[in-house]
Amino acid sequence: xxxxxxxxxxxxxxxxxxxxxxxxxxxxxxxxxxxxxxxxxxxxxxxxxxxxxxxxxxxxxxxxxxxxxxxxxxxxxxxxxxxxxxxxxxxxxxxxxxxxxxxxxxxxxxxxxxxxxxxxxxxxxx
Length: 126
Known about the structure:
Strand content: under 5%
Mean pLDDT: 85
Structural class: mainly alpha
Low-confidence stretches: none
Shape: elongated
Number of strands: 0
Distance between the termini: 57 Å
Largest sheet: none
Number of domains: 2
Radius of gyration: 21 Å
């Protein structure tokens, strides 16, 4: 597992996978590697995502969700490229959606910087 995995993922993998660094996350009935052709059937993907309220959710949507969360957490384009293993900025930009929540975070951070600067200026004598 990468050193920079989120704690929720670390805990989940510790509970549901073998301790071996090369352990498989998804396995078939006999513990063997799953192939893309039988993955959905083997893990009952359609039934499982519907049961958790995400009908129509695709496996690749996990990648999109993770990268969107990384971008919303402040990851730069270069950092997203590194996490995704892409050489092109175009792919990373897909995940940098503008959101109202992130817009508020940016405005708040700007307010804090302005206030700090104003305090510094106000504390100086002429």
